[in-house]
Amino acid sequence: MENIKRQGLLGVIYFLGNSSYSAVLGLVANLVFTIFLTPAEYGLYFIVLSLIAIFNYFTDLGLAAALIQRKDPKEEEFYTAFTIQLTLVTIIVIIGLLVTPLIRVWYHFDQTGTHLYLAMLFSLFTLSFKSVPSTRLERKLDYSKIVITQAFENTLFYGVSIVLMLSGFKIYALVIAIVLRSILGAGLIYWFTRWVPRIYFSRQYAKGILSFGIPFQANVFLAFIKDDLLNLYMAQRLGLSGIGYVGWAKKWAEAALRIIMDNVNRVIFPIFSKFQDDPLKIKKGIEKLIFYNSLILLPVLIGAYLTMPIFIQIIPKYQKWIIAMPAFNYFLISSFLVSLYSPIMSVFNSLGKVKTSVKFMLLWIALNWTVVPLLIGLYNYTGVGMAFAINSLGFILVWYKIRQFTPVDFLASLKAPAVSALVMFLAVRVIQSLVSSNLYQNLFITILVGLLSYSFSVLFLTKGHFLNEIKELLQKKTD
């Protein structure tokens, strides 16, 4: 158990370390994109990502999740999963090519938009080859090789796209970077695993894999209806510039959420699957998840609220995004509320309670497709952020449901981070009212006071117990 906890914590640290590195590149790249691209061009990028996410759904059918969840899969099961996925992705890419003319007309793509779309399709095909070898590494909890691959891919993509964007390539910077990343990233993961894929199909193994994978993927399918399909609807309703403003606000507001929560969730599934029959361990695990997620996310989200108006004034050519600030603030609220329930959805899946996750996804689909169109009509793109914040209040229902399985003390887990975040907010607001109007001084003091006030408050309220816990887990030797 201690070894699993240690490997799980190391997995989170590996992914967070890579994410921190990639986040710096990603934030710099996104900054460059949003400086050199118009809102309409940025909206084009946002739409294409959603289109490819739809195609990507049909290339998996939960195969990776099924292989991770199975206790001792045979080699033939990996070959069968690879063959199924290769068949699916080939069919989907062909369909994607056939519907290209329709997509061009529907979203008013010009030639550059079409080329970006085709590059994404190529990437979809190539990167799908990574799924099974990555699964083999995850089953061994060998996260370091996955992290190195991701770091390489991100370095290549962001590095190439930034250099080419600065050189005036605009959208074509993304086209070139996407193609290079997909080819070299897939090659690296095979070099790490030394796994040689085979075309092999067993009806028996396929039935066993898909019996878990399809219900699991049904949850993913609902997620893409909730998010990516909704993005395509909003793009048609708001236009390229409008969806560009939504994309800017959502991208920046959810940056920390994607870095922290997505990587934590990735580790949750294989770890919680290993003690799915022990409610007490599940309880303690969830409480730790809520505590550490909130400990990191709350100060970052509040810091983003306090500093983004300053950044918009400092960064050249960035004033064009100021009208998206209200949407950005609503997305910040949504990001924190999502962090309160998303890890628990992964816990439901790891416990085999996929139907519970599906029911919640149906709820959020109904809310999104009801509230978002309504508020778009009333408040345009700002209404999208408002709708996401309102719908995220559904975290209360997720808390109620998991407490029927194990008595998680959510409020105790949230207390120290929430109180410390409030102290940070008040301290920064007081200091901001006293400092000079110089933007650079204001930014420096805001960050410094926020960091110090939050750190001292957390250490005072927790007495530093969480630091000792991390240190002890890292010091334990592997069994």
From TrEMBL:
- Pfam families the UniProt entry points to: Polysacc_synt_3
Coarse class of the protein's main subcellular location = membrane
Q: Which residues cross the membrane?
A: 12-36, 42-66, 78-103, 115-133, 145-165, 171-193, 290-315, 327-348, 360-379, 385-402, 414-431, 443-461
InterPro entries reported in the protein's UniProt record: Poly_Biosynth_Transport
Q: What are the alphabetically sorted keywords of the record?
A: Cell membrane, Membrane, Transmembrane, Transmembrane helix
Coiled-coil annotation reads: none
| CC terms in the record's Gene Ontology section | plasma membrane
Bilayer topology reads: Multi-pass membrane protein
The source's domain of life comes to Bacteria
Localization (cell):
Cell membrane
Per its UniProt record, what PANTHER family does this chain match? LIPOPOLYSACCHARIDE BIOSYNTHESIS PROTEIN WZXC, PST FAMILY PREDICTED COLANIC ACID TRANSPORTER
Q: Could you say which protein family the record assigns here? A: Belongs to the polysaccharide synthase family.
Query: Per its record, how is this protein called by name?
Result: Uncharacterized protein
